[in-house]
Design a protein that fits this description.
The chain is an alpha+beta fold. Helix content is 47%, strand content 17%. This is Cytochrome b561 domain-containing protein.
Amino acid sequence: MCIDATVNGSSTTYVLSSLGKQKAGWMAMGFGRQMTGTPMVIMWINSDGTVTLSQRSASDYVMPTVDANPPRVAQKSLSLSISNQDTKQSVIYAFGTTSPSSSADDATLQQHLDMGVLQLDLTKPVTASTPTGGYPSDNPTNTPATGNSDSFSEPPLLPYQKLIVAHAIMCTVGFLFLLPLGALLARYLRTFIPTWFKSHWIVQFALAGPVILIGVILGIAAVSQAKAMHLNDDHKSTLFKRWGIALLILYFVQCGLGAFIHFIKSPNRARRPPQNYLHAVVGLAIIGLAFYQVHSGFDHEWPFTTGRDPLPSVVKIVFYIWVVFLPVAYAVGLAFLPKQYRQEYSKVQMNDEDEDRNRFSLKETSYGR
């Protein structure tokens, strides 16, 4: 973006313009050298052609909020006019490529794509060759530089964004790798290895449980670090967070159901109990919902809450390959169901025969006496 400043008496008119290399969603400038505590003016053009001007400030490296009493009052225009008598002006600037969804001055902003700090020399006469900006903030004694931002590389991850990345990795590993692995182990091994349940619960509970729990904690920490709201706003992200908590609760319910099925069994059962089928259905539902949640996370939540570009296309390719592979792998394992049912039926028959022998032995003992 480009910043032009023109002094006219006691007021200075600032013009914020795009270089056309990226779509201009919103543009902003602030009067200081850092984001924290600096009065900012943010502008964007709405879908109906009107311009919104929002004066804000930030207490940290988070989305700025509306400042009801700014130290300098800006007048709305397609340019920006502010009362000012300084001869040197340090300016921070930023722009994003996504327009806010509302014309309200407190509308949610996605994170800037580029930002920087300049020093403007307001004493220079206006000529065709006069540079627009002043000096880069890192070295004010360098040769004059324009206020242009020619570089569009992604800025480094902020602390809360690093937590989001860690949260995404842990939850994806837990819900979309370890849980499906445990389900496939049960599906394939139960007809061949008597101790299949041990490997099943180790993967599903001992390994996946801590990974999922840590992932959820990291997500909560990211929201707190960003000073955002958790579950009590009306934003679409709230639905995403609530689904995440619901998945966590459903996971622990599933673990409890599995423990109940394994440790509490009726000795006189003649067929597979309904809770066994419920356990399978709930497990598959958790994995299916996790696919939806992960897709929502990288496809919508990441670019919307951070303002960053969507993830590379290779991420989506790997995701969709996994979406296809897991159901196919599980469906192939269903070919062992007839063998599984025969084994379970034979076990029930053996238990019945043992019970009949015990009764016969008791009768013989009673008759002999």
